[in-house]
Amino acid sequence: MKNTLIAGLALMILTGCTTVNGFKSDETKLYLKGNPTTGFSWILQIQDSSIVEIEESSEYLGADGVVGAPSQFCYTIRSLKPGNTVLRFEYRRPWEKNPPLELHLYDVTVEKDGKLILQELETD
After folding, report:
1. Average pLDDT value for residue range 106-123
2. Nearest partner of 108 among 59, 75, 74, judged by Cα
3. How far apart are CA 18 and CA 25, in angstroms?
4. Domains detected in the chain
């Protein structure tokens, strides 16, 4: 398990494997913290959605009724077929045209055996 603190937002990656229809599908969980009560959310763009599938879930981390408390967003990334793609996570308010407060780019490689390799790219 990898646990890293990036610009005040927690990032954690967990990995695991399953076999489906002869293809050994690998799985990685990516955790990002955010604050949806302020209108901010993680906006995800997948360069090629035929390579991986992603499910999002979230967990509220504050006490009941507390406005402005953080949440933890979980992105379960599963390999579908060999190839390469890029994931772009922007932390912003969807209706605003301002640049994102946070930006994370990940290069994703799925090898022939189904192994999923996730590497964060540097952003300017």
Report:
1. 93
2. 75
3. 5
4. 2-121 (2.60.40.2020)
